[in-house]
C-alpha cells in the first residue's frame, strides 16, 4: 500500500476494500471517507458525471503510470434480490442503455460491439477444445447456433454485463447506483435485461417491469432474452470448469437443462 501513502499521506487510515484485483481500498481521515482504486477505466469519469456511480472526487497519475481514482465512499447497502423488481432499477438501467455519453466513451476506448455471431464462435471453440460429452452442453450450443438468425439486433448500447443484485447500491438518501464496470461492453441491451429478468423477476411480471424500463415484451425480445440467459449459463459452466469446481459445474448443467426446457415449452 505504499503507493496509497504516496498519494494521501500517512495521516489517512487505509483498509482493503476486497474485490478480485486487490487494488481497491477505503481511506478515512477526520470524518472523510474515500473509496480508492488503482487503474480504473477512464470510463469511470463519465459514469460519475452521469450519476451512475458514486461521485468521483479526484484522479491522480503516478510516476510509474498507474492512475489512482478516489470516489466518495457510499453510505448505504446492496439491493436485496426481491428489490430488483423495483421501478428505480428499471429506470436506471434504461438511463444507462440510452446514454450517448457512455457509448461515445466506450467507442473512444476502442471497444468493439459484441455480436451474437462472435460470441458463439468463441463459446463453440472453447467447448470443442474441451471435448465435453455432456448432452445439455451439446444441445445448448446447437440451439444457440440455430437461433442466431432470430437474435440479431441493431440496437447496440453500453451493457454492464454483470447486473447481479450485489452490484446495485442504494445510498442512505435512496440514490441508486450500479457499480463494478470492469466488464462493460457495447452490445444488445437484452444481455442485461435478460439476466435481470430471468434470475430476479417472475415471468408474469416481465411485461410490467419492461414498461417501467420503456420496452414492450414481444416475441423478438423474448427470444433474445432466453438466448442470452442460456449463453450466460454456458459461460458460467465453462468458467467453473476452468476452476475445476465440479459442484458448481453440475449446478450449471442443471440450470442449462431448465433453461432449455423453458425455451422448448414456450
Automatic annotation (TrEMBL):
Domain of life, per lineage: Bacteria
Occurrences of domain Aminoglycoside phosphotransferase (ranges): 17-214
SUPFAM superfamilies found in the cross-reference section: Protein kinase-like (PK-like) (SSF56112)
Record protein name field: Phosphotransferase family protein
Organism, as annotated: Metabacillus endolithicus
Lineage: Bacteria, Bacillati, Bacillota, Bacilli, Bacillales
Amino acid at each position: 500500500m505504499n503507493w496509497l501513502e504516496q498519494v494521501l499521506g500517512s495521516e489517512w487510515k487505509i483498509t482493503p476494500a476486497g474485490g478480485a484485483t486487490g487494488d481497491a481500498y477505503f481511506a478515512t481521515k477526520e470524518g472523510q471517507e474515500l473509496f480508492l482504486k488503482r487503474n480504473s477505466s477512464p470510463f469511470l469519469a463519465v459514469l460519475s458525471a452521469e450519476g451512475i456511480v458514486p461521485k468521483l472526487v479526484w484522479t491522480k497519475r503516478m510516476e510509474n503510470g498507474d492512475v489512482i481514482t478516489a470516489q466518495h465512499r457510499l453510505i448505504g447497502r446492496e439491493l436485496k434480490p426481491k428489490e430488483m423488481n423495483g421501478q428505480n432499477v428499471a429506470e436506471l438501467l434504461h438511463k444507462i442503455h440510452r446514454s450517448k455519453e457512455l457509448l461515445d466513451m466506450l467507442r473512444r476506448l476502442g471497444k468493439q460491439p459484441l455480436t451474437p455471431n462472435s460470441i458463439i464462435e468463441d463459446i463453440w471453440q472453447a467447448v470443442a477444445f474441451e471435448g465435453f460429452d455432456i448432452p445439455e452442453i451439446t444441445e445448448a450450443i446447437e440451439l444457440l447456433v440455430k437461433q442466431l438468425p432470430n437474435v440479431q439486433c441493431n440496437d447496440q448500447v453500453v451493457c454492464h454485463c454483470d447486473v447481479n443484485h450485489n452490484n446495485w447500491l442504494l445510498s442512505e438518501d435512496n440514490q441508486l447506483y450500479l457499480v463494478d464496470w470492469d466488464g462493460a461492453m457495447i452490445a444488445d441491451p437484452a444481455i442485461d435485461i435478460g439476466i435481470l429478468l430471468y434470475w430476479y423477476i417472475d415471468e408474469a411480471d416481465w411485461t410490467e417491469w419492461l414498461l417501467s424500463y420503456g420496452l414492450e415484451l414481444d416475441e423478438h425480445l423474448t427470444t433474445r432474452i432466453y438466448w442470452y440467459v442460456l449463453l450466460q449459463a454456458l459461460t458460467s459452466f465453462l468458467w467453473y470448469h476452468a476452476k475445476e469446481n465440479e459442484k458448481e459445474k453440475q449446478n450449471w448443467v442443471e440450470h442449462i437443462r431448465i433453461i432449455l426446457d423453458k425455451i422448448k415449452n414456450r
